[in-house]
Amino acid sequence: MSFRDTLSSSRSRCFALPQRINDPLSCIKAFSSAVDALLCALYTDSLGAHSENVCLIALGGYGRGEMFPYSDIDLLVLRGTGAGDGAIAAAVRALWDTGLSIGCVVRSLDDCKRILGEDLATDIALLESRYLIGSRPLAEKLGHLVRAHFRRRKQWYLQEIHASLREAVFSSSTSLYCIEPHLKAGVCTLRDCQRVLWSQRIWNSTKEPDEPIPRFFSFDQRFRFQQAFATLTAFRAAIHCAALRRIDILEIALQPRVAADFGYAAPSELMKRFFLTVRDVKELVQSYLERCSRSFHPLSSIRRQLGALRPLPHTYVLDGVLSLSTSNPLSNRWSPVHILRIFEAALSCEATISISLAGLISERAKNIGREEMKNAEVDAAFRAILSSRHIAAPVLRQMHETGFLSLLIPEFEALTCKVEYDSYHEYTVDEHIMIALAMLDTLTQNGDAQIRDLLQALPDAGLLRTAVLLHDIGKALPGEHSYTGAIIASNICDRLGFGEKESERIVFLVAHHLELSALAFRREPEDPVIRRFAEMVGDRQNLDMLYLLTILDIRSVGQKTWTAWKGLQLELIYRRTAEILGAAGAAPPGSLRKPGQDPTLFGQLPEIPEKVIAAVNAPGDFALHNESFVEFERLTFCAFDRPRLFADIVACLSSEGYGILSAQISTRSDGRVLDVFQVETDGTTSVPAARRLAAIERKWEQISSGARTGESFLAERMLRYPQPAHRRETSLQTKIGIDNTISQNCSVLEIESSDRFGLLHTIAQTLARLGINIVSARLSTRIDRAVDVFYIADVSRKKIEEGRSQREILESLYGAIKEGDRYSRIDEEPGH
């Protein structure tokens, strides 16, 4: 049996179900031992009698004896004086010839001594090194060398590791609650667990890695740490086995298979267990850091006596942390009002509640009944926190994590660790809300003066903060969450004691929090549409808060959901609506177009320069002009009308790496078509705009002459820059609809489908074949889901009649998109 076959057999045996779920730590240890035996046999065959001056050392995770099913095998061939180069080279070749993912380096003791201190990751890998076979005295010399080095630089290593842990658990730019988490290097996953263990080992300057869990942990905390580490280990082993390769991200496509391995009925149950596990790790890491900090600062008790703030009896604030100054045995009798006073103190002092104090609050929250919460003083204190001009998001997050927020708003409990399996949200529902609250706090420092001024001018910022907290509360129940959420929000506002007018505004924001973005990104800003929207909004204060809420909502669903283009579209609708409302102090709408310009063409961006207008008005067969804005470009085409014109332009743009955000099309009296595209580059290459435009012109000439087709350019782009194979799989199917009531002059075609390269060309080509004119288009992608809206008309420039004409369009589009998806999947398969 070959080395590979033997390893495969060992892998299957060591990670068989249910063992890899019930006892994952034994599985990785057993597999590590199996790899040891195979490598030692291979080493003996390769080096034989030459092994007395050489030894084989396991590094990193393999050095710890933690081999996951498809992990890399990291090795050090340590050579002593007089070791034969030829024999070592032969041994290394034999290791690589196995075809496995083996990382192998050859170094002497002097080499190891020289590199120590250059790179933290390399140093830690050597700290975790483990002797396998060969010269044991040589391996022991390496061990003495490494431990001596770590003893000399003990404080530096501890500070570096603790800084990494603090960045993980306190950074506002990272989240525990990603729907596709990284199990090895994600926040509070396996890497952070290892950092705690590294810290303890360096602290104690010990030789063996298998030592008790950190001394700073209580017995209960040690048990929780071990349980969390085992759970994360089981998750990582499970995704390796599901994917049959090394993979560290728990992708949505793998979650049903892994959930079944764990015995869960749905992937959401699996993810809830994961999120609760990393939340536990976060609390343990924070507790560890707090206790380490006190050990690093032996004079902390003196500093506490002399320099700490004391916002409440038996509490103090030091270094931005609110802590108890006594063990406070009466904590089990704290009233809800007293707990809220602690949160208010943290808010006013801009402090974080210590983990020990948060733990006491959490334990007390478990024993507080609903009746205790029915208290006007409790409601008033909570409303005061929501209305504060201080930074409130950290306090609201700790209220949530301790379970106290769910006592105030019981409906919020259903959102905890709730996963939305759509193509838009990257975080759990509760985490999305917490991120939005944090972003609200940062708006006062926002670089956009209008945004900053709008927030500061609000009569009561607490209404907006409450709306942000409740805007997705409807997701606690089935159905349309905006409608359901408005009903729930109304009950919550009554229960918390908000006034009638205050409640009306909060409920309005929850009920309509999706409508401004839907209008900005999926509709042309025709006057009747804007006027209907203004009538629904009612007044300027509602508009201001809805505008701010929409910005926060979009920014907090994912890391790449906000773009300058979206900001421009939202601002346009906001300014137009403010003008119609005619409120005092409304933002001036400005002149977005020149007299005589077609508003459907030029009404959405800063005015087109005179030189561009002159160029497109000049005689000629073809004109192309480019203007650059922040994060996107505007391309203006002018060419004589012909069949498939729009589809061919789309092919030229897409094949040059442009993603199309929107398009407006107008046919002039001289038979020429004027197309205005707003585009952004796909980031695949960094080709300058001038080169892209020159290439587009060449391609257009080749298509016009019949030498090439748009499809051939798209196929060429696919071969040169293959699209990523991984896509987020969702239960959504392609949805297509036609509506004749939205626009005065056009039918509105809406298409929601899995995104792929060339999708817009497929749609444009299908509509051209049916003789349908595209008047304008609004295009967007949510991760890998295309949501495209087209304003269309027939050959007579009239709306598409209901009945047979619409059915033919729908059937043709469904067929074309399905066929295109089939070829796209074939192209992504290995070997195609």
Characterization of this structure:
The structure is a single chain. This protein is α+β, with helices and mostly antiparallel strands. The protein has four domains: 3-152, Beta Polymerase, domain 2 (2-Layer Sandwich), CATH 3.30.460.10; 157-296, Four Helix Bundle (Hemerythrin (Met), subunit A); 297-389, no CATH class; 611-828, no CATH class. The chain is 54% helix and 12% strand. It contains 36 helices and 15 strands. The strands form three sheets. Strands 8-9-11-10-14-15-13-12 form an eight-stranded antiparallel sheet, with helices on both faces. A hairpin with a 2-residue loop joins strand 14 (773-782) and strand 15 (785-793). It is globular, with a radius of gyration of 32 Å. The model is unreliable at 583-605, 725-731 and 825-832 (pLDDT under 50).
Helix-strand blueprint:
Blueprint: H1 3-14, H2 19-22, H3 24-47, E1 54-58, H4 60-63, E2 73-79, H5 85-96, E3 102-108, H6 109-115, H7 120-127, E4 130-134, H8 136-152, H9 154-170, H10 190-204, H11 219-243, H12 255-262, H13 267-296, H14 300-307, E5 315-318, E6 321-324, H15 336-348, E7 352-353, H16 355-365, H17 370-373, H18 376-387, H19 393-401, H20 404-408, H21 429-442, H22 449-457, H23 461-470, H24 481-496, H25 500-511, H26 515-522, H27 527-537, H28 540-555, H29 564-581, H30 599-602, H31 610-617, E8 622-629, E9 632-640, H32 645-655, E10 658-667, E11 672-681, H33 689-705, H34 710-720, E12 735-739, E13 747-754, H35 759-769, E14 773-782, E15 785-793, H36 804-828
Helix pairs in contact: 1-3, 3-5, 9-10, 9-13, 11-12, 11-13, 12-13, 15-18, 18-23, 19-21, 21-23, 23-25, 24-25, 26-29, 27-29, 28-29, 32-33, 32-34, 32-35, 35-36
